Amino acid sequence: MNRGDHLATxxxxxxxxxxxxxxxxxxxxxxEVVRSVMVGSGLLxxxxxxxxxxxxxxxxxxxxxxxxxxxEDGTLRLPERDGxxxxxxxxxxxxxxxxVRRYDPDLAELDIDFALHExxxxxxxxxxxxxxxxxxxxxxxxxxxxxxxxxxxxxxGDITALPAIARWLEMLPEAASGWAFIEIxxxxxxxxxxxxxxxxxxxxxxxxxxxxxxxxxxxAVRTVTVAEDERIYAWISxxxxxxxxxxxxxRDNLKxxxxxxxxxxxxxxxxxxxxxxxxx
Length: 280
Fold this sequence. Notes:
Layout: H1 5-14, E1 20-23, E2 28-39, E3 43-49, E4 64-69, E5 80-82, E6 85-87, E7 94-99, E8 102-104, E9 109-115, H2 121-128, E10 134-138, E11 142-145, E12 152-158, H3 162-171, E13 177-184, E14 198-205, H4 216-221, E15 232-239, H5 244-253, E16 261-267
Parallel strand pairs: 12-13, 12-15, 13-14, 15-16
Antiparallel strand pairs: 1-11, 2-3, 2-10, 3-9, 4-7, 4-10, 5-6, 8-9
């Protein structure tokens, strides 16, 4: 992949009829925390900035970056640029993936929303940092580009997927129709969203049920029906194990073609650094 080739590929996908993953040239940048603010009771937003943010690329609602942390002894081992890719040291350094919530090239700001949970490495780090704290950010490595030609869009996920769903809703055309199902603990985790008039947003309150153990998301998605002449795109994410029946529902009941949906596990019960690429 030559630099710039991905822009032509993105244009081709947007002019087509199905979604496709498009790789971008991957960079590594040292940024600093500009500010932090709670978004609802479940998300902590860190705004990152700095001169190295220049040239950052952002094209897809679900693209992610990888934050690279020092080892326990304080040593920092970073990936090195290798053409348009990164070469990672072995053993791999401590790192975590997070959705690009917002990138503003004019303000030179990058927002990352952290879903707070007890004992999470990155969650604890995000709550402890102060303005001026520096962090290395790798990526995005690419994203799934989706044309805005579908009849309706189905978005669903838990609070870890909420940053991506919020960005999806902001990027959809004003005339878009569809559904957004979002599983959270309670009303305190609901946030303000920019939503096209034709998209129904349904907040699913899990209550005392532990994260990753509720079937609320599955039951909500199963209410969706598609007419024979209707094309929909489905984007679903959350706890990996709970998504398995939804994969079957999208394929077997909604009968979506492979380019018409993306279902990815953002985390998995009992796994500290789950890699979504490990899931089908």
